[in-house]
Amino acid sequence: MVVTQENVAVNGSSRRTSQQIADTLRERIRTGVLRVGERLPTQAELAEEFGVERGAVRQALRALQEDGLLSNVSKGSPPRVAEPAPAREEPQPTMVALAPRLTEAFSVPHVRIDAVCLTAQSLIPALGEPLRLIHDGRLRPERIDVRILLPSRDINLAFPVPVDSGSADDAVHQRWLAMRNAQGQVLQYNLQALRGTHDIDVHVTFRALPFTPPAKLYLLNGAEALYAYYMVTRRAEPTESGTLEMYDTLGSESLLFSFEKRAGQRDAAFVEQSQMWFDALWETITTDLTLS
């Protein structure tokens, strides 16, 4: 093994955790110190470099393999830096692309879905397919955790808003609020019903954002981020008292862009930063939300 200044610093520090080892190796891959196809040092050499037992090294290597950065992780030979995964197909409208991505996400024992959106309008039909497969016995998750950030009822939304402000402001806001609450309740009911029908540990939680999200974000099992811009358009909706002109969004028609950890360093960074952004919002400036 070639001893570098970095190695000396590592060996001179306190014992590293498997996460710290993985982060160091990930940075070497990101910066090109370790190139695609190149073999890593043996587990014994890495254990000596980081001053840890081989078990910690194996955990770090497995984590990098799960992220798609390493291949051939085994006890028999050193792993190699993996080729980036093939690029996904062209982005598709949310109403087309979201359902198959959610279905794949529900194939693991512990499903984790985080979402930032204006309402649950796109989530409800997209969840139909994985729910159907669960009822058919073709998907068998053990636990489902869903966290959803929606705009607070108490803020002035950027959209939807009436074209001409005034008396119509409240009508547009109440229309959006009714949709937000009704759709959220349907989503919550459909998922929590799996507790009784399939003995799945289900948790669905909502929190309120103090701003209008300009785009929607879906995070699937910490491994994939789906991102789509809200496209604002002018449209008219008939009401009992006439026609309501408003600036609204076409969320289900917005193109959904997929970023996967296994697809390379840029995608992996986007997924990680998106998850950090979501977690920060969840734990800081958002508030409890009761759908009513």
TrEMBL record:
Gene3D superfamilies: Winged helix-like DNA-binding domain superfamily/Winged helix DNA-binding domain. Pfam families: GntR. The keyword DNA-binding applies. It comes from the Bacteria. SMART domains: HTH_GNTR (SM00345). Keywords: DNA-binding, Transcription, Transcription regulation. The keyword Transferase does not apply. Residues 15-84 form the HTH gntR-type domain. Residues 69-92 are annotated as: Disordered. InterPro entries: Tscrpt_reg_HTH_GntR, WH-like_DNA-bd_sf, WH_DNA-bd_sf. This is GntR family transcriptional regulator. It comes from Streptomyces bangladeshensis.
